[in-house]
Amino acid sequence: MSPRILPRGRRAWVSAAAGAALVLVAALVVHLWPEPAYPGMKGDCDRSELFVVGGTDVSLKNQRRALIRQWNEGRDAGGRPHPHATLVEVSESTDLQHSQIKAVEEAGGCAYDVLIMDNTWTAQFADSGYLRPLDGIRDQDDFFPAALRTGKRDGELYAVPFNVDVGLLYYREGVTPPSAWPGLVSSDVAMQLADYEGLTVNALEAVWNDGGAGRLTGEDRPSEDDLRTKVYPALARLAPRAHGTLAPSRQYGELESIEAFASGTKLMRNWPYAFSALASEPRMRKGARLRFGVTALPGHTVLGGQNLAVSKHSPNPGDAADLVAFLSGTGSQRLLFSCGGFAPGRYSALGLSPGHSSPADVKVQACSSLTGQPLGPGETDVPDANQLAQLGRAVVTALGRAEPRPVTPHYSTFTSTFRGCVQKIFDRAGTDAESFAEAVERSLDGRTASC
């Protein structure tokens, strides 16, 4: 059986500026809201079916859906069919995903069994009692340590990596990528500076690479003095760029950045999934050769990504944990990478031994060799194994420079406050270092604040 995708009206989004370009990517971006009539949402907890909730599947050719299909067609170690799983796609917006999932969990509803969560949610969801500890996950040393830590709270494992995100630098053919941060922000580069989580990510990377390294990351709380003297000045120095070379990026999310890059922008900061999307775009290919390259972002990057967790209110926690183990396993991670373009959370998915992170040793397979589906006459893997290896090397290099966003159960309050302050700094709206430091410090405690 194939997975059922439960929409309540689809709204396809295609930028007018994009026109017919990047049709493949645009076709993947749809709003899929949970249908309130399905058993879990109606409060029907006496069920064997599993419901997996997350954002819109933007992987190339919907590989998350393909994994759910594989699960539904498979059997357990005793030869019994797996309980059927249904994928509930909420939205491409991280903020909307958070609001929808949190509302159901807060109400104690049994609508969801497996949660696909942004890795910043662990502290809040664990502290609020929304998650079950994961006690049966094997080969934990095979996960990239930094990624696995995002699923832990107070020493307990509540979530495991589904896919890892790190900032990568894409460059057009013939362009030499800058090796240092100042050269990047002064170049013709597309970043993500629109008013959403991407602004928080890009602003944190700017801070860490311009005098604020080690601030606003992980569980260490910055002092107000650090916020005044290290974080604020870095953002203030970026403000002129926001009115110059980076002005177009203030309207860009991930997809708008991809379109700008495909249309001629020389450089782009984006996540790993952009690689496969661009490799499939005719403007970015010349025969089998790609007309772009990818490398690690210079300096520090945000460690993003999504984790898998079991809802505390799942009526089938054992089966849900088995599904988490399947989705986070090496085979699933390889498929997500080679066929979907998502960076894996395991060493083994990139042909590396646990703890061994040399980019030169990355070994990957092309999609067709994993799926066993033969290519037609004249068809080739897009991207092929060599091109995927380039992406894998960039990911491993970037992981060595990656830092988590602030770990706090009040992350949603922090990020909305922080990016509001960043916008005011960019707009030169009178925000000073003192008010910035006070607002950000309050937001980390969940207190409402603004610059």
UniProtKB/TrEMBL annotation:
A Pfam family: SBP_bac_8
To which protein family does this belong? Belongs to the bacterial solute-binding protein 1 family.
A Gene Ontology biological process noted in the UniProt record is: maltose transport
Q: Tell me what this protein is called.
A: Extracellular solute-binding protein
Which UniProt key words apply to this protein? Answer: Membrane, Signal, Transmembrane, Transmembrane helix, Transport
Taxonomic source organism: Actinomadura darangshiensis
Q: Which GO-annotated molecular functions does the record name?
A: maltose binding
The record, for SUPFAM superfamilies, names: Periplasmic binding protein-like II
Q: Does the keyword Transport apply?
A: yes
